[in-house]
Amino acid sequence: MSSINNNDYEYDDVEEGEIYPLDDMEDSLLEESIYERRNKRSKFKLLKNKKLIRIIFIIIIFCLIGYITLDIYNRDANYKLKKYVRYVEPANENDKYENWNNNTGNKNAYLIMFTSEGESVENYYMYTSTIVYRLLHKEGIKTKRNDVDVVVMVTEDVADWKLRGLHNLGAIIKRVNKIRMGTNYIINRRWRNCYTKLHMFEMTEYETIIYLDSDLLINKNIDELFDVANEVRNKTGRHDFFGAVTDGSIRRNYNNKERKGMMNAGLMVLTPEVAVYNDLIELAPKKDLYNAGFMEQGLLTYYYSDFDNKFNRTRYHLDARYNAQWLDDSNEEFYDKVYIIHQKLGNIEGAKGQRVQKAIFDSIVEWLSYDNNKEIDISYD
């Protein structure tokens, strides 16, 4: 076997600092590999971004469709009426809040609260205006007493044109600050201003207040509720009075006036008293004491308890006919027997009972006709 002589092979000399061709190839391959990986990542990111953009676009489309669908659904009887609502311009430089809050010296008041914000026409402006119209102008329903004010209690962000419209109907406007006790336990966001009702106990310029929610249809004159309060005060020898109907359907309450349980705050008859207001403001944040999900209704039920008398306050049970709740086609026999029906108009409110719905609609049309000084020809059907 012959030996190999290394001298028989020739090698290329590589000078110091010079890149050997193989190294150059490896670096080139490495750079190409890095480029490909970066390119793949870029393509992946692009595809990922495109996918995200598609998802966002689809969500926007669905939201738009949902909004349009909801808007069409909400275009119920309320929507039909809104276009007839008149924006009330100032009559002169004195047509402003300072002159809408006049004290008449009357000792009794109907009180409605109105807290809807902004300039747009919404349901509760129509409801509130209709109640004021019926209390002051509707034959057979309007107050017959000379010692009664109709007061609308409003918050600071209600548009002036709405206040002007209510005042032009004959209402006294009283502005109050909102009372809120937190929103984490509210069952319905529409109720977030309901504690603001408690200001009614501060209005000590009146001996008796009949508080009315704006979603009430008043079918008969209810002046006699002032007499009920006076008779109970005279009989008991107490200055204070608080009366309400127990929460529940008209069928359940009609023949059971003294039924115990949570009261309904849609109609209340009361004697204003600052001590009561202070008590309620102190108790309101202590939501573990009462059914705080029902806001002021739960608080007042606790304070004027049917089951104990820890605050030395009692609740008088008003006849259910003054606050007929859940009146629909299934219990229509009560329709002509009740004074007030507690129900809103339209499918957005989940209301039932075509006879009641038509009556609410027609009552708003009567106010619109009066306010526009011409008959508004529009039907519920």
Strand-helix topology:
Layout: H1 21-74, H2 77-82, E1 108-114, H3 123-136, E2 148-155, H4 160-168, E3 172-176, E4 208-212, E5 216-218, H5 224-236, E6 242-246, H6 250-253, E7 263-270, H7 274-283, H8 295-303, E8 316-317, E9 324-325, E10 340-342, H9 354-372
Parallel strand pairs: 1-2, 1-4, 2-3, 6-8, 9-10
Antiparallel strand pairs: 4-7, 5-10, 6-7
Helix pairs in contact: 3-9
Task: Describe the protein in words.
By secondary structure, this protein is an alpha/beta fold. The protein folds into two domains: 21-74; 88-372, Spore Coat Polysaccharide Biosynthesis Protein SpsA, Chain A. It is 36% helix and 13% strand. It has nine helices and ten strands. It has helices at residues 21-74, 77-82, 123-136, 160-168, 224-236, 250-253, 274-283, 295-303, 354-372, and strands at 108-114, 148-155, 172-176, 208-212, 216-218, 242-246, 263-270, 316-317, 324-325, 340-342. Helix 3 (123-136) crosses helix 9. The longest helix has 54 residues, at 21-74. The protein starts with 20 loop residues before the first helix and ends in a 9-residue tail after the last helix.
